[in-house]
Design a protein that fits this description.
- With about 300 residues, this protein is an alpha+beta fold.
- About 40% of the residues lie in helices and about 25% in strands.
- The strands form two sheets. Strands 1, 2, 3, 4, 5, 6 and 7 form a seven-stranded mixed beta sheet that branches.
- Helix 2 packs across helix 3.
- It binds (3R)-3-hydroxy-3-methyl-5-(phosphonooxy)pentanoic acid (PMV).
């Protein structure tokens, strides 16, 4: 049976890095950029081809998969869950989510692949089970992921996320007009997370205080999102960016884009995701959107995306 499945990218609005230490974070799906998996019936064995990824093809059988490869691990865990080791066919992955730029590319590819394998088996995989599988694969990318990426990407809903607690979905009452500006610099979340860990070990009291401040911002932000207090939400984003800077996960390029967005009239702006490179997100209103986009392009943005959340 020929079929397809997909999953979206994501942006973290509040709380990245601190979320690893148990404070709340907020993320939204980016439904307009997606990873898609196209399935074709062919002869055994199951082959996954992902031309946009660094390791473009893997073949999966009951014994010959490599648990250190994200595609192979996703496929193996899904087949294990479905008890479907004798699947045959070809799955081709295409993704328009930039890699290593904080937009959830790895989680989206895993989620799309897991869903595609379930379809090939003529079954569905519940979101909560798929999220667990994607979380296992995220460990390869991130080392000690909080679980926010798999949660928002698999459920494709805005989430208020606290590690190891029940997922809470949030309702956006006033649509959020967001511009995403890519520095064009790929960076490994794993390295930024490890550096924050070292900072925490060196300066536990000070760093814990910064985490708590980020958590308080995320809690305020939730109220703003649920009541439509957009101007205040923007201020909270910028405050969150300053705290991320003080954790040393921003960069000159990210700071430059944040400043440009604010000078251009954004309500608020911050880096999003692991940092060091990747994307800045700016909250705008309809009046400021064009000025902010111009300012971001002039400041060196490589790719600009625009989304309305809610
Ligand atoms: O770089 P991304 O988009 O995968 O974001 C990671 C978010 C962190 O908080 C830095 C890590 C995590 O696991 O939550």
């Amino acid at each position: 049976m020929n079929s397809q499945a997909s999953a979206p990218g994501k942006a973290i609005l509040f709380g990245e890095h601190a979320v690893v230490y148990g404070v709340p974070a907020i993320a939204i799906p980016l439904s307009s950029i997606r990873a898609r998996a196209y399935c074709k019936d062919t002869a055994h064995p199951l082959t996954v081809i992902a031309e946009d990824l660094p390791r473009p093809a893997v073949t999966i059988g009951a014994e010959n998969f490599d648990r250190s490869d994200p595609l192979a691990l996703t496929a193996a865990l899904t087949m294990e869950h479905l008890n479907a080791w004798n699947l045959a066919g070809e799955i081709r992955i295409r993704s328009d989510i930039p890699i290593a730029s904080g937009l959830g590319s790895g989680a989206a590819v895993s989620a799309a692949l897991g869903r595609a394998i379930a379809r090939m088996h003529n079954s569905d995989i519940p979101d909560c089970e798929l999220s667990k599988i994607v979380f296992e694969v995220e460990k390869l990318h991130h080392g000690t992921p909080s679980g926010i990426d798999n949660t928002v990407v698999v459920h494709e809903k805005p989430v208020y996320f606290v590690k190891d607690e029940a997922i809470e979905f949030i309702r956006i009452v006033e649509p959020l007009h967001i511009i995403l500006a890519d520095t064009g610099i790929a960076s490994l979340t794993r390295d930024a997370v490890a550096d924050v860990r070292s900072l925490y070990e060196r300066e536990p009291a000070h760093t814990a205080k910064q985490f708590d401040e980020i958590g308080a911002i995320a809690n305020d932000a939730r109220v703003c999102i649920e009541t439509g207090a957009i101007a205040r939400l923007g201020e909270l984003m910028t405050a969150n960016h300053h705290l991320l800077r003080s954790l040393y996960v921003s960069s000159a390029e990210l700071d430059k884009l944040v400043d440009a967005a604010l000078i251009g009239g954004a309500l608020g702006a911050k880096m999003s995701g692991g940092g060091r490179g990747g994307n800045v997100i700016a909250l705008v209103n309809d009046r400021s959107a064009n000025c902010v986009k111009d300012a971001l392009i002039k400041a060196g943005t490589k790719v600009l995306l625009e989304t309305i959340a809610g």
